Amino acid sequence: MLDRSTNTLSTLLTYTQNQPINQQFPLIPLPSDSANGLFFGIDTADWNPVHQEWIALKIALGGEETTRLYANVLYNYATGDMISIDSILPTSTDAKLLWHPNGRWLVVNLLGRGVSLVEVFDSTGAMPLRELKTIDEINNETLLDWVGAGDLLLTTKMIDGDTVFYIAQIINQEWRSTEFFRIPDELFTVGNFDWLNTAYETENKVLTCIFDTRLAPRLQFGRRGRVAAASSSLRAEPGLRSAVLVEMAQGATFDVVEKPWCEDGYRWWQLQAADGTIGYAAESDTTQYFLEPAP
Length: 295
Description:
single chain; mainly beta; SH3 type barrels; 6-stranded antiparallel beta sheet
């Protein structure tokens, strides 16, 4: 049975636990230990968003948990057909499988091999099933999910004790990855963070943010606000490296003239100061507010 709400399968073809999986599917590379060739269970399932009869499955093979191997396959629940993903990639391992929102590509994160972009369907709906590119530079990153407008891939990596978030995007079958946010490990708890605004792209640079949900946006487009901190810099563009147009003192009021923008770990709004100057000022980072709604 299929359960889309939990993204799991309760059955797979006629396979049962501890039965050989390669009787009808010989393309799965198996270890010499025959126990590891037994069907143990379905670890994860990701439905294709366009060709909805196809599911990318990571199947756990029997054996001890510490030595367990996985078979990565495409499964058509309407016909029962299975196609090996591992047959076009050099190893069978614990992989992260994510369909691209266009339904044509599958992103496969193989341990120790970076991220592979696999073309499953071409523009006509045929299935060439070929590897387009391997992105070795994100070998040690962890894939999380598609975010923003749907074509941005959120990844993380631990660097010097910090949790570093990256946004990656596929442009003309090329992988573009940008570090955009860093959180000290002692402050990071998964439950406290969420996506609070739509991602934007300007000149192939992704501008997006992740913020502590306790610091949700308080300013509103078309409303007035005021400076809550000792002062606030009104800059020409979003970002700490942009030129300062004017310093706004604590209590100074302004008009919010554009929806929020993110850069350098801060949430920026386009404002019009009392003297008519239009620029960008930071509302908050992950720990404090610098701007607030005017009473």
